[in-house]
C-alpha cells in the first residue's frame, strides 16, 4: 500500500495548533518534500505558522488557506472547489480539526446543547461533508493511476469512551466507524484511507475546560506522539493506534477492518443477485 512518502500535495485541515500542527511540520520535513497546505479558521494563527517556519527555507512548501469547518455547506463547497482549482496536484487530505466539551448528565440542566451540536458538527458531520466534496477529485486522480489519501483522526476514546467527554467520544466513535467503511469502499478507487487513533495527547483542546494542568500528568507529549505517528504513516498501515489507544485497539478492534471487508464483499454478491 502507498504511504505518506508518496504524497505530493497534502491539505491538513486544522493545522494551526495541536496534533495537526505537529504533523504538518513533520510532513513538511519528509525527504519527498511534499507541498503542505495548512488551514484553520484563525488568520493570525496561519500567519504565525507560515512566518515562523520560513527562515530555514521551508516556507516555499507551506501554503496557508483560511478554512472554517463550521461554515455552511455552500461556503465549504466553494472553498474546497477553490482549493482543488488552485492545487490540482492535491492528492491527500488530513482532517485534524476538532473541539471537546465536558458533559455531566447527572446534572442535565448544565448540558449546553449549543456546544453539544457544535461538537458533533465540527468533529463529524463537517468531516463527512468535506470528504464528500473532495472525493470526486481524489477518485479521478486515483483512477488515473496516482494513489490518493484520506487521513482521518479519531481517538482512543472512540473505542473506550471517556464518560466525562461523552459526546466527544461519540463523535470519535463515528469517525472510527466511518473510516473503516471508507477504507473498504474506496480501495477499489485507489483512494487510501488511513485512520490515526491518538491517546490522550498534549493539546490546546483541553485548555477551555480548565483540565490541562491535571491532564498534563498523564498525556503523551506532542513531540512523542508526532514521532510515533510519522513512523507508522511511512508504513502500509490503514489504522494507526498510538500509545494507550493501541492497547484498546488490540483488545476490542483488531480484525474489525478485515471483517468489514468480508461483509462488504458478501453484500455486493447479495445485492448483485
TrEMBL record:
Q: Which GO terms describe its molecular function?
A: oxidoreductase activity
Q: Does the keyword Manganese apply?
A: no
Instruction: Look up the domain of life of the source.
Output: Eukaryota
Q: Which UniProt keywords apply?
A: Oxidoreductase
Q: Which InterPro entries match?
A: NAD(P)-bd_dom_sf, SDR_fam
Show the PANTHER family listed in the entry. 5-KETO-D-GLUCONATE 5-REDUCTASE (PTHR43669), ALCOHOL DEHYDROGENASE, PUTATIVE (AFU_ORTHOLOGUE AFUA_3G03445)-RELATED (PTHR43669:SF3)
Describe the family membership recorded for this protein in Swiss-Prot or TrEMBL: Belongs to the short-chain dehydrogenases/reductases (SDR) family.
Name this polypeptide is given = NAD(P)-binding protein
Amino acid at each position: 500500500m502507498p504511504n505518506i512518502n508518496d504524497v505530493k500535495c497534502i491539505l491538513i485541515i486544522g493545522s494551526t495548533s495541536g496534533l495537526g500542527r505537529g504533523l504538518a511540520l513533520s510532513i513538511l520535513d519528509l525527504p519527498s518534500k511534499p507541498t503542505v497546505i495548512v488551514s484553520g479558521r484563525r488568520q493570525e494563527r496561519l500567519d504565525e505558522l507560515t512566518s515562523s517556519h520560513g527562515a530555514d527555507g521551508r516556507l516555499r512548501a507551506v501554503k496557508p488557506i483560511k478554512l472554517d469547518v463550521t461554515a455552511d455547506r455552500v461556503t465549504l463547497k466553494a472553498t474546497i472547489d477553490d482549493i482543488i482549482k488552485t492545487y490540482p496536484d492535491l492528492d491527500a487530505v488530513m482532517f485534524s480539526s476538532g473541539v471537546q466539551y465536558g458533559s455531566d448528565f447527572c446534572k442535565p440542566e448544565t448540558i449546553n446543547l449549543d456546544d453539544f451540536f457544535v461538537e458533533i458538527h465540527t468533529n463529524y458531520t463537517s468531516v463527512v461533508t468535506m470528504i464528500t466534496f473532495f472525493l470526486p477529485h481524489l477518485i479521478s486522480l486515483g483512477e488515473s493511476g496516482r494513489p490518493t489519501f484520506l487521513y482521518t483522526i479519531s481517538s482512543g476514546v472512540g473505542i473506550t469512551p471517556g464518560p466525562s467527554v461523552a459526546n466527544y467520544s461519540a463523535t470519535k466513535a463515528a469517525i472510527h466507524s466511518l473510516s473503516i467503511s471508507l477504507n473498504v469502499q474506496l480501495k477499489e478507487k485507489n483512494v487510501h484511507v488511513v485512520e490515526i487513533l491518538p491517546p490522550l495527547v498534549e493539546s490546546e483542546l483541553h485548555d477551555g475546560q480548565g483540565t490541562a494542568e491535571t491532564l498534563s500528568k498523564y498525556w503523551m507529549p506532542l513531540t512523542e506522539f508526532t514521532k510515533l505517528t510519522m513512523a507508522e504513516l511511512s508504513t502500509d498501515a490503514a489504522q494507526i493506534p498510538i500509545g494507550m489507544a493501541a492497547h484498546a485497539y488490540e483488545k476490542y478492534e483488531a480484525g474489525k477492518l478485515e471483517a468489514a471487508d468480508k461483509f462488504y464483499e458478501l453484500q455486493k454478491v447479495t445485492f448483485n443477485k
